[in-house]
Structure prediction request, 1052 residues.
Amino acid sequence: MKGGKTVSWLLALTVAIGTFTGTTAFAADSSDGSEENSKPTITLEDVPTEVPTEEEIDIGNFDSGDRMPIKATLDPKGTTHKMRIEVAITKGGSEEDDSEDDADGIQLLAKSDNQWYDIAQVGWGPKDGFTANDVTTTPTEVYLVASKPGTYSITVNLVDKDDNDNDAVLATTEASVTAAGPKITLSGIPTGFVPTEKAIENIDNFDSEGRTPIEASLDPKGTTHNMRIEVAITKDSSEEGDSDEDAEGIQLLAESDNKWYDIAKVGWGPENGFTAEDVAKEKTPTKVYLVASKPGTYSITVNLVDPDEDEDDAVLAHEEASVTAAQPVGDANSLKTACKDDNDAPSAIILTNDITTLKVPLEVKHLLKIDGDGHTLKFSGLEKIATKDSDKPKLDDGLIFKEGADGSTVQNLTVDAGLTGSKTWFGTYAIHAYKAGVVTLKDVTAKGGNAGILVNGSNVTLKGTIDVSGNGFGGIEVSQGEDVSEDSQLTIDKNAELKNSSESATNPTVWLVSIKGEDSADVFQGEITNAGKHFAVTNRVAKDDGTVQTQYFLTAGNAQLAPAEGWKGPAGEPGIIYAKDSQPFTFSFKESDVVKQKLLDAKKEVAPVLRLTIYLNGERGTGDTPENSYDNSVKIPLPAVSGSSVTDETIKTAIAKGLGNIANGQTQEKTNTIQLLEAAGVTFDENGTPTSVEEFRKNISYQDETWTVRLNTKKLLSDHISKIEFLVKPSLNLTADKTEENPFGTPVLQLGNNNYFKQDTYGLTQAYLYTIAKPVTVTTVSPLSSSVKMQWVKKGSAPNLPRTLTVNGKDVSGVTWTSSPTYDSAKTGTYTFTAALPEGYELNEGVTLPTITVTVYKPSDDDDDDDDKEENKPLNPVIPAPTPSGSFVSDTTRDFSVNGTYQFRITSKNGKEPTFVIGTPGVFEIQSVTRSGNDYFFKLRAIGAPGDKAGLYINNGQRLLVATVGSNPNYAKLDTGKQLPVKAGRTYQFRVTAAKKPTFVCGTGSAFRVAYAGSKGNDYFFKVTATGKAGDKAGFYVNGEKAPRTIGTIVA
Prediction:
């Protein structure tokens, strides 16, 4: 800009949508020593967050018209520097094509002396700068024009022109703006495979009847560009025959003016394009029908281009989709042919039927993508293959992927190995990936084998729902066969769901095999990724063949530790314990007949000794045999009775000596022992020397022939110890004298992590097995209805105390209630019941459990009109005092209508969670409760008919307001009452009247089977058949409502 007055300035955007607040910072200025607040400042106002794209402006003909400017103000703060404005624009680094040219997608136009300048290119002010006296107080208006979509960072610098050409920055401010280009949306892209068919040769005769279209929508976002649709299709390069010709295996057919076009070839729209106004005239999405004629996986790219560009059409927006076209297969012979490795083998197939006549394994040796489309492959006779010539290696599994099958996938398929005796080990699996490279399984069920899936020298990824129930020995094995050197890798997608209804101590969901190396270290035959996201516990089990299995369990209670070989006595059933700060374990000292005889023979008083070996996470010591083993246990003399003279120093010395006895190299054993002692209350310094046993003395005791050991199982769990196994040897010192074994003449508890003890024992050795589980943290508890929360009960009657509460959005049964004062149905008065959750739940900070207030009243004599509850209320009834309204603030206080859902924000002023009660049932339900600080958000969902009303109550106080159902698109009217008796085997038809097809489900699938029976107008019909036995009950739910509309009972 030549000469002219320099004014305070600001960028002006084309369209203001929202307001951006810029951040201001200043470069250091040591030249004049001024304070921070005396430096120049730049202020931006009215910066929008988003603007539409348009054609690049010829600034010589620019007209600001009704565009909204950004206003910028410069306060020089009296600086004596000569200044100039310079602008830098960068495009977001995550954007595609973020080159310097793309930063030219923004113009910043400002006017001086009736001439427009793009200050993004030339800056503002004379080349040698301007002074503070040149600056006016009127903001400069600058207009932003965006010609390319993207997110741009705009940096405005006030530079010092006196700084010897270094242009030191005196002040700077930044803004971010998104140029929103047109957007293409494709919905209805097939998620499963698309069956191939003959290509449509004469598209003029194409019939779309019965086909499901892809719906294509275009939002031009107000762009002024001319536009046209062009489509590019490529075939997955990993598949055979991926030529340009193969990419023609997809047709995309759309209709315009009663004429069909293949837009994959000719695009969509006139050659010179269409405008945003043309798009606005189209009221519905364009329906596009996909026809696949050749198997394969295709990438479809839909580009919105500007045909006015001089060179290649500029892409204004694009959308991508991937579709797999598959050859239909409906019988065993076609399936076997498809699996063969020859030039004509398809790269993808989709089943059209269950195939249940397979008598030999299916071997896949080429890349093959299989979509079962919900069907089943069932084998039979595989055990005969397994037992025939058993000394010869063979593959006797169901579906086997072998070398050459790299990249194969299976989805929506059940594979049943069909073993008649899956509990007999044949080494047969439903699915076997054998040196196959990468194989992906999604939404697959593998059952009927010794195990469901074998990962053997392959890289298998699990996605969706993987069900490995119904196998004899477990779900998934990860190992290496004798001739396999390739790594075995199982990757479980973080969003996958594993199921194994057969899971038990002897049927793990996954197991990983390892062997012992030369240094006795584990040599794993594979690796499992993301196991920690899916499994509750793991277990280590030594097998007869010398291998060790690391077993993974979905449910903690299904894992069981077995006692080591050589120990007498059966292991008890494993018990689930939930981590606590102090968890008691008790062990009774019982004399066996052998012990009693020894006592008679010795004729001496004895001190009891409990030999207690504790294993953590299933890891055991390495003693050679029960008779000749080393004893690395820690022997700890205890103050077992009151008044014991055993000192803290004596106990600490014994612990240190015991730890010192652990052989060098047994580092894990020593670590485990210290972790165990810490959990028992011993503290150690950084060198592993015990420093305090004060808590330890409290945590271990012997009284009334019973040892009690208290452990901090929360600490063990935090140390990644999720299992404890106590192997108990009741033993007696047959001497009253002090010995090295019992130097204090008092009972001795022996803690250790070793497999065997040298000393003789009398009586059965017992195993006590526990799995430590992390308690569920309770973050939300759904409130009770007002009719349950406040109850009037006749004298002699029991209150309604629900046994189930909704915790964290899921129903939890086994809820108990305690009353204050103790409930006495024969005594009138007011009782407060407080809920208690079953073992395994702990409340998050600030979360409370619901209470129920029950008032017991005396019925009137000579009165049978069933209104005793009203008649026996005193004139001044005693009811719980409501929480004062000062305890909360609601963001909504007036009566209003709810259209669908509405969210209240209730702010707690006393730190307690508010109670939110709906006065009239069946009108609204609380869909969710979330918390942020002291703000609680109750989301209300309308379930009643338009016009239904309900009062809302907070903290047992007066009614807050009345909410009315305005519009409820999900409202459905049922033609059946609250109770429905149905004879066993009979069918009843429900009629549900709704604006759209409702969901209708039975809560107990074993009692009734539901089938959709069609519709007429707004009436939808559902048939339910009583499949259970007489007395079975089930609730029927509409549109996902939490309460059943009808309770069905099966009658004889």
In short: Residues 681 and 696 are 4 Å apart (CA to CA).
